[in-house]
Each structure stands twice: as C-alpha cells, then as structure tokens.
C-alpha cells in the first residue's frame, strides 16, 4: 500500500540569546531560549535529496541573534511575532512558522545604601540574580495570514497547607484511599493561555498581561476552598477569563504533588497534620481547559 | 462573556510497577512506568465540588498493581489494553481512557561457564543488568468502542560517521553555514508508530512487532546515504511501512546532535574529519510523519 | 595480597520531610531533604552476614520524621544537630553521623487587600509559592565528641553585565582566546562555609547567619571589579570572613557560565556588547577556599 | 583575624570531544567528556588581578582537541596521562593537574547479511548506536613527579530477584521495618578503582583492565547470596582485588533502589513476590572502600 509524507516541521531548537541594554548605568537584560519550527512546501527535501526549499536551521539561529539586535526584545511575544512573520513572508516555500520561547527572569542585586546602611538599599545597575520560581513561556504561530499567540508559565510551585478536602468519590474493588477533610494541596503549575489578538490592530501589552494573569492564577489558588484539584483548576482558569479581556482560553496542567501524612503512632507520637512526606512518583495529574463560549480552543493537549 | 469547561483529563501518572515471574529458577521481569488519563462526564467535579463521578487517581494506581497480578504483563501494549478497557467499561462516567507506558529493558547477567571457563558463559537466572539504550513506549486509548495503539521508543542515539551531505539550500542575508559534502550525522531517535488494530480480532504480537520496527529504523538509518536529516527521517519511516503490515503511520522526532569539526589550523594541525566537538544547544530538530495513503494520521504533533 | 575494609558509611538518603506549624491561621512551613550517613563498628555487616550492629536505613528515615514532630525544625542546622547526636549517642556501634540537608524556601502568597485594592496586599496565611532561586544546604557531623557544621547554598545564578575583564594570561601554542576588556561575567554559585561552633556553648543563630552570609556573597559579587573569576571568588569568600565572626572557612565552586558575544558582522550589524549566546558546555570551573589563618580547613574538595 | 587562600583549582570542564578513525571503511570512534583542573602558584590570580600565571581554561579546552589529533585517544586513561603531563611539565606555575573523563560507548549497527538474510548479519562500518548502560569514568592526577589513575564506571543498574535477605539488625523505638527473608536487591553501581601504576614502566592495558573489572563486579553481584547490601559491596570489591593485580583499591557507592512488595490483599489477591513498586526517594545509600593491606587509600569519599 502506498504511503505519503504527512505533517512535518523543522528548525533550530533552543537558541539561547541574551540581550543587554546599556542605555544608562542601569542595564536591562532579556534572557530567552528560542525554538523555531517551519513547515511548508518541503516534500522534495524529504524525498529527492534536493534542499532548494530548505532554509537551514543554522540560518534560523542566526536570524534569532540578528533580530535581537535589529528589533530588540521588548517581550518574548513581540520578538516571536517578528521572527514568525520574517520566516513566512521572506521564504516562499515556508508557509507556517511556530516560535516557542522560554524566558528566564532576573532580579537586580541590591546593596546597602551607604548613606543609610541597613535601612535603605541601592540596586547595582549591572548586577543581577536569576529569579528562580517560574519560567515564562510563549508560542507564536503565523501562517502568512494571521497570528496565534499562546503565553504561559511553568515550574510555579504552590502549596495550601489547609482548606482542601477530598471525599465522596467513586469506590470500587480497587479503592483503598481514605477520605480527607483537611489535606495539604500542592502543585507545580504549568499554564498556557491564548490571546484573542490575531494580527489586526495593536498588540496587547504582553508584559502587563503576563503580570496580571500570573497574579490571578496565584490568587485563585490561594483563595479557593478546594474539594478537588479539578475544582481548583477550574477556579484558576475562570479567574483569568473573568479578569483579562485579552485572553480567550486557559489550559492548566496540575500535577498533584502529594504530601502524605506520616504515621507517627508506632513511635508513640500524634501527628496533628504537622509532619508530611513529600512524594515524587506516582502523582495525580489533572489537566483541563477553560475557554470563552463560542471560541474554538487552540491550545494543544499534551 | 461566559466561559465553559473544555477538554480535561486526569489520572495517576508514573506508577512504577515491576512484575517478576518465578515459574522456574530462570526468572522473567517486566519493568514499566504507567500513566493513566481519564475523561468523561466530569463537569461536576470541576464546578460543584461533587466528586461522585470521580474515580480517584489513587484507585487507578491500585488497579495498575492489581492487574499486574491478575492479568500479568505480557507486553506493555496488552497491559494497557486491559487497563483502558477496565476503566471505561466499569465506570459509567468515564468515557475515555488513555494509558501511556514506558518500558525499561533488562538483560541477563552471564557468568563464566565453569566447565569451559572464559569460553562459554552461563546466565544467572535471577540476575539482571538494565539494558540502557532506548526506552520503549506505548500509548493505548479506548473510548468504549475501539482502541488506538501507538507503540514507540525514545533515547535511541545513533551516528553515521560518513555518507551524509548537506548543500544546495536557500541562502539569505542571515546565512553563514558552509555547505558540507562529508559530515557526521547523529541523532537521538524518538519514534512512534500507530497500529491498524483497533479492537477486532486478535491483537498483533506486540513484542515481535517492536523488535522488527526497531530493526528497520536502525537499518534504514545506517543504509541511507543522506542529503538531509529530513531525507533520513523519510527513509526510516518508509522502511517501517514497507516491511510491517500491522503499522499504518510512523512519526519521528530527530534532533540533529551536531558534531562540529574543530578548527585545528591555529595549532598547525590538519583536521581530516577526525576531531569533533559534540554540541548541546542549539540543535536542529526535524519532525515528520509518514503514513499509508487514505489513513487519517492519529499520532499527535509534539 | 590481603585486603581490608576501608572507609565506609551508610544511611537513608533524601528523606523529604515537610513540617507545618499551625499555631495560628498564619502557618509556617519547613521543607527539607535529609540524608543520613553513619559509620562505626561495621566490619561484621560487610564480612559475616551479621547485621547485629546495623541500624537499618529505614529506621534512620523514621527518626527524621519522628524528630520533626518531637523537636520541630527550627533550622536545618539545629535539626541536623539533634539527629547526629541521637544516632551516635544511642547506638553503641555507630561512632560518627553525618547529616546532609537541602532546604527549599517558600514565600507567602499575597492577595490584594480588599480595603485598599491594588495598593496594599494581604498575605494568605496558609498559601505559599516556592521561592526558586538558591537551595540552602547544611552538613552536620558528630563523632561523639564534637560537632562540625557546614552551611551553604547552591543554584544561585548571578550575572554582571560589565565591570569584568580578562587579559594578561599565559599564551602558548594552543592559545586562541582574545583578551577581553569588558565582558559579561555569570556564574551559578555553590558556596559552603564552616562554622567555628563545635558543640560548646549556645548554637549560633543559624537563620540570621545564613541571611547575612548570602547577602555578603551577593554584595561582593556585585561590587567587585573583576580581572578574573578567581579574583571574584576570593572577594566573595573574604567578604564573608571579614563580616561574620562565626564563620572560619568559605569554599566556593563557580562555573563560568560563558556568554559569548555573537558575531553580527556577516549580517551588516555591529554588536556593541548587546547580543550574547549563553553556552552550556564546556565551561570554566573555578574552585577555591578562603579560611582564617591557623584554622585547618574542613570543607571537602569536590 | 587574618585569612588566607587555601586549596584552589580551575580549568575547563566538560569538553565534549569525539575522535573518529577512518583508516578503513570500518571506522572507530571514541567519545569523551573531559574536565581539567589545575593547581599551583596561583595566589596572584586571586589576589592582585594579575593573570600572568593563569593558563586560560579556553586553552585547556583547545589542548584537549589538539591532543585528540596529535596523540589520538587510545583509552581515556592514556589520553588523560598525556594531558596531565603536558599541563604540569610545560607551565611553570602549574604544579598539579587533575583530568576527569567520562566515556560513552558505541556499538556497531548490524544489518542483515544479504547472502544469508535473517541468519548472519553484517556490521555497517560507519554506523553506530550508543550503548546505553554504564558510563565509563577515569581520573588522572599528576604532580610533576608521579601519576595516580582511578578508573571507574557509573549508572550500571543491576537487580537480583532473589537470594537477598535482611534481618537481625538493631531494633530501637523508631524501628518499623519487617525482617525480609527473600527480597529484591537492586542498585545503580558507581565504582572507582585505583591502579598501582604511578608512572614508572609501561602503562597497564587500560581497555582490557576495564573489561575485566566490570565483569568481576557483575559476576560478584550475581553470585553473592546477600544478607545486606554492605555484604554485596564487600564481595564486589574483594572480587576485583582478588582477580586484578593492577588494582589496589576499590570504592563503591550503591544506592539501594528499593522495590517494595505491593500489598494486594485489599483486592483479594495474594502477592507471591510478584508485584513490586519501584521507589524513587528516599533510598538507602551504602558506600565503602576495599583496599590492599598496607596501601594508603586515595579515592576521595563523596
């Protein structure tokens, strides 16, 4: 039976570009990891040995560096829009570009203000410490016609030490879990959210949008009295849609980082929800999308 | 604007189960990492705090262990079929189950045959060394009606030290890459292939099918004179479809593990394709699907 | 030729214990990863099959959990002192205990103060977000007689975008590096520092000591005009010894996280120290100890 | 109180060099990860900003590449001896060089012999698949006078499905572990062994030595009826010393990769040592040295 070439894409992955702005003694930095994936009229590259339609991955890497100079990096999203548009609009065989970006945040190092030692503090304009916490993500796709922008974050680990229950679930012959009326709820948030902007009009203020979406996710996690991690997931996604008009869809992947109460009775001790074992594997994994009515979801399922 | 709950799924991820068969002094072992994802009538779990439709992830974990005893683990695929069918057929609110499995292979430790020391060797029936090399993967999905089985492997690293060229590609203002007429080609293969079996009739011999698909991938990589990694990808996928009737679709993800020729001229030395720097990042990433004509591809794009 | 059993040690590694204090609605948490290594009169355990002198690693794990309840976790160091003393003082064959601890920090999640929305903010007493940034470390060793405490941190990534030079070094036939008069200097700090306290008198205030040592490391990195990473290392270690009387020795491991200036000239662009490639491997690795005169260094070389 | 500079070292870490030999159509490859650490008269580099005694880490990297061409890579150990001697003998301020090497093994890809398809097979002279399994290690230290060579391996995972017991240990108030009379014993072997060769006379046949030491480690693991992992450790080390005259000392680090029997009774099933949960953390960690009498151990304790 004959076979055909299906979906395919290629490009340079994980180009690590750091852009420094030195307009004053107070430097600014942007630290990105950029992955390019191009699709189009590429049958010959796969079938005949002709690379006439192939823009080398090395060139996509060079373009990332050159654009960091030519356009600067205002935000990961805006940088991705520049790149995606360039690859499609300037290479006839390339019909679609998908740019994925990770961004690592840096804080300024502060040293004591000498005029007020141990009270005020002064930032050192060229010294930075990596923020840790979450990694910011962005995915920009362009097909020559319109853009699709999905912002996100990952590795944001949160914990509620109370206000979480889990009971009333299905019991079958393989059930041993005891119902819980006060448990620890911890998860490492991976979130992606799709913007309604598709190329027409001004781009949203991506930096401001990110700050607020992140804040709403944290607040919803903290303020929700939870009967399941699913319920918390829904509260987090809804909170974003209720507050950020530029966002149409939110998808969350929430591993349940189990904290099991240690049985201290063999040692003559009572564990009043004080001592927990933080387990690695296995872990519950809860995934879900919340989107505006009438909008077709675009964020891929992992 | 109102919003709605979209695609969602949940289950226990990464249950590490080891099954030992002790029918003789020659033990057999199966070593799996099993992840369960269930979908269905789960709106209430997200919206109202009722868990009446929720089979706890803890129970899905218990079921993995119990089935390892009740059904044994003939193959990752057959084990996943048991699990997926169970979750959907025995829980009215669960309409779809997806089981993902990683399998780690073990070889037998052999010791010298005492009757012919240093010539023959004798396996120790209860002693094993982990094979390293690739990890085998399987994904089994069941919706109450039919099955979809995707087998695969990852972390299979291969290298051709010659018979690879790359030239004749697009040149633009960002091009600096020099054409190569004899380069090293190395990649870490991630492959997935979809089987035509969907539940009717006997299951394929999964173990035998795996052995042959893996062999064809390796042989195609070794025997293809390559003008691009895309061409090698297509040759690998085609080879499988041409030789294995039970497979309908192959998807490959091939990072180009760049080996750059080191410039030794500053040291008065000539590098005749002998000394290479093995780079980490960035790397080219080539992905593609080959499928039988008329078949709708089912393997998700990463 | 006869052989003998040399240095040996054993214990449970990586016990993940989380301790929650619920004395008010403002909870406190301590999140540790504890590894125990015991040595002593253990020849029989290795040689004869007798475990009469072996305290099982499972018991050392249980002890970690029980002590989290019985003694609480005031600091990683104080907790390690409790554990080390217990193992040696209560098990005749155990002559030495070494406790290694990693501590993960958590910040409180704050939500807008409703009475002053978007101006003030209110912490949620039971909701936390993991701090990211560095991991705090501690090693406590006890031999029945005295204690040795080594505090530390790792994964603290810092960058100076200027005030770093490197020139005037040895040139030989393998030299190609160009001298640099304004380079980016970035490193991921691993630091360990030994305390003079050895068991007599009150323990130092470990939490306060840590906060100040960390601050001095950051300040010295930021304020040092650097001619080599070695010079920066020495400045960081010296700064700690000059300011913290309780510390006798500092050891630093500083990988040079190279940021290479990208050559943009092929694209007709000038790179005024603006666009860098952040490299992974290889990397320079600079290690060194600074200690008080007359003190015998105790921190092991990696 | 005055402070001084103590132990310090520096160099380029993780230079990834691949050497290909193309003397016939049957290519040979060596794939190494080389880390250099130099010590000596380096006070000024740390204290004054003068780099006059500093051989840049970039130059040590270049030397690795140049030596791969000039000397070839016969074995990791012989390559390290070349490098260490060079750095010390050719740079007056450098008094000591320590070279650490990881080696990744590759197998040849074989394809069916066309003249006897599916019976014989034919290797493809330029096609390789990475072996997986263990990583080989070597550490070579030279102080201008003599050499110290420590060979080793890591990530060699082994399992015995029977012939392991653990009982008769200390019981205290924190003991809950039940004695085991037939358990699974699994570990991921890290082994290092020191050679007696110190520079005089011919070097040992490093490749042959490695093959045999590895074999003895595996055989001792498989053939030892074990009452503790300590006992297995001692048997493994002793076996090497009893059989390999060129080795003076063996150090082993053996994490106990716990396989816990799953309790299937709640499901009405009996677990006859058939179904296990492979745990991640915490894990027992057993470390120990066996050395010839009268020899001073040199392998550092982790």
UniProtKB/TrEMBL annotation, chains A, B, C, D:
SUPFAM superfamilies: Tetrahydrobiopterin biosynthesis enzymes-like (SSF55620). Its EC number is 1.7.3.3. It catalyses: urate + O2 + H2O = 5-hydroxyisourate + H2O2. It comes from the Bacteria. Catalyzes the oxidation of uric acid to 5-hydroxyisourate, which is further processed to form (S)-allantoin. This is Uricase. One of its GO terms (molecular function) is urate oxidase activity. Belongs to the uricase family. The keyword Oxidoreductase applies. Pathway: Purine metabolism; urate degradation; (S)-allantoin from urate: step 1/3. NCBIfam families: urate_oxi.
């Amino acid at each position: 039976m004959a076979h055909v070439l299906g979906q395919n894409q290629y490009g340079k992955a994980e180009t690590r570009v750091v852009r420094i702005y030195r307009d004053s003694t107070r430097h600014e930095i942007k630290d990105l990891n950029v992955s390019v994936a191009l699709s189009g009229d590429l049958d010959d590259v796969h079938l005949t040995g002709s690379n006439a339609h192939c823009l080398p991955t090395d060139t996509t890497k060079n373009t990332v560096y050159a654009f960091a100079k030519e356009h600067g990096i205002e935000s990961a999203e805006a940088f991705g829009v520049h790149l995606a548009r360039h690859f499609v609009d300037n290479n006839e065989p390339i019909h679609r570009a998908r740019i994925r970006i990770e961004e690592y945040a840096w804080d300024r190092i502060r040293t004591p203000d000498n005029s007020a030692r141990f009270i005020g503090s002064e930032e050192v304009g060229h010294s930075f410490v990596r923020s840790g916490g979450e990694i910011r993500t962005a995915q920009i796709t362009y097909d020559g016609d319109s853009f699709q922008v999905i912002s996100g974050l990952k590795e944001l680990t949160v914990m509620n030490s109370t206000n979480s229950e889990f009971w009333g679930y299905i019991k079958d012959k393989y059930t041993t879990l005891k119902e819980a009326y006060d448990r620890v709820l911890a998860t490492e948030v991976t979130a992606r959210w799709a913007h309604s902007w598709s190329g027409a009009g001004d781009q949203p203020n991506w930096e401001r949008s990110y700050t607020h979406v992140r804040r709403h996710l944290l607040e919803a996690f903290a303020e929700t009295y939870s009967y399941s991690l699913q319920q918390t997931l829904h509260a987090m996604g809804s909170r974003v849609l209720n507050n950020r008009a530029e966002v149409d869809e939110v998808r969350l992947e929430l591993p349940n980082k189990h904290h099991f109460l240690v049985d201290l009775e063999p040692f003559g001790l009572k564990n009043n929800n004080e001592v927990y074992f933080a387990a690695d594997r296995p872990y519950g994994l809860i995934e879900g999308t919340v989107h505006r009515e009438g909008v077709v979801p675009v964020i891929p399922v992992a």
